[in-house]
Design brief:
The protein is 4% helix and 45% strand. It has a six-stranded antiparallel β-barrel. A two-stranded antiparallel sheet has the order 3-4. The mean pLDDT is 83. It has helices at residues 93-99, 255-261; strands spanning 5-14, 40-47, 50-51, 64-65, 69-80, 102-106, 114-118, 128-134, 137-152, 159-167, 173-174, 197-199, 206-213, 216-221, 229-236, 239-246, 265-271, 280-289, 293-297, 300-309, 321-324. With 325 residues, the chain is mostly beta strands. The protein is built from two helices and 21 strands. The longest helix has 7 residues, at 93-99.
Length: 325
């Protein structure tokens, strides 16, 4: 039986110090939710401390009652990929990218480009406070870190999925759903069009693709920490591109050769829109093909590709870059 509650509202803000409530507000830090059924929260404990086989004080009490420890939340937020009406306004995705190990830098004046770059594992990275409204309650979750992924299907807008973990140090309180201010709601969502994927300079006919930053996020149970739980840390970045493409001519792009030689190659992944400040590109200078899966789609021969993103041992170089223009 699932103990998940569906989310109906979300506000998130980057913390100044890990685990210290940053106080996000629905007016200034609201994150618009998309794909409603997938937005959920579940509250758990590192240690349930259920001891059914220990004799209790009362006969038939079903064990010894011991308070659980290490309360945390596991939650998923799906938000629309969306730019902004002007370059001064930060897209909603900024806060989830920060919690997934990316750092933002602004372009040179007049260039109107904003870049998020993946960070080294030596850098602990930012954390986020999330206020989540679900089931008539307000849950305050601090020290949040997680993973991001988004698919690209031709002619469709792009949802971003943020799967995260954080500490629940306060009991939830009764709360009506407040009024949220979404800064970029009037901006049209960019769709996948043109050549969304390039591999080693080749633009295949692409049925679908997905960019997945599947971070390994671990809990830190520690003596001396409040409630025995010291928070969450990203200990590994496992980034992949998965795509279904029309089988290419070997003369144009030979995945069999790339796989056999384990050759590394540049790749890019794009979501386009005619409006400025609403175009996004993901750039990776080093990718490596994983096992190939020939197949068919709509009676056409296709190939399922998985590209692993190659980085050095501490994940510092080469960085993955997400560019808004």
């Amino acid at each position: 039986m699932s103990n998940k509650l569906r989310l109906h509202g979300c506000a998130m803000k980057v913390e100044g110090q890990y685990g210290v409530d940053a106080g996000p507000t629905p007016a200034a830090n609201a994150v618009q939710l998309d794909e409603s059924p997938w937005n959920t929260i579940e509250v758990k404990f590192l240690e349930d401390n259920e001891h059914p086989n220990v004799a209790g004080l009362d006969m038939g009490a079903g064990g010894e009652a011991v308070a659980p420890g290490g309360r945390y939340a596991e939650f998923t937020v799906v938000l629309p990929l969306r730019g902004a009406a002007d370059f001064a306004t930060i897209p909603d995705m900024d806060v989830v990218l920060a919690a997934a190990g990316f750092t933002r830098s602004e372009g040179v004046p007049g260039a109107n480009k904003r870049t998020w770059s993946s960070k080294s594992l030596a850098d602990a990275g930012a954390s986020v406070t999330a206020y989540l409204w679900a089931g008539g309650y307000l849950f305050k979750v601090v020290g949040v870190r997680g993973s991001v992924s988004w698919p690209a299907i031709p002619s469709r807008p792009v949802p971003i999925t943020f799967k995260a973990w954080g500490l629940v140090r306060e009991d939830p309180v009764d709360a009506a759903l407040p009024a949220f201010t979404y800064r970029n709601r009037a901006v049209a969502r960019p769709k996948v069009s043109g050549a969304p994927l390039t591999l080693n300079g080749f633009a295949p006919r692409c049925h679908s693709a997905a960019f997945d930053v599947a971070n390994e996020v671990v809990a830190l149970p520690r003596s001396g920490a409040e409630d025995g739980h010291d928070g969450y840390e990203i200990v590994d970045y496992t980034t992949t591109i998965k795509a279904v493409i029309d089988t290419p001519l070997a003369a144009a792009f030979n995945p069999w050769t790339l796989q056999r030689t384990t050759a590394r190659f540049p790749w890019s992944f794009e979501m386009q829109n005619a409006s400025p400040f609403n175009r996004f590109s993901i750039l990776g200078p080093a990718g490596e093909l994983k096992p190939l899966r020939p197949g068919d789609k709509d009676k056409m021969t296709t190939m399922d590709l998985t590209i692993g993103v190659c980085r050095d041992i501490d994940q510092s170089t080469p960085p993955i870059r997400i560019v808004q223009s």
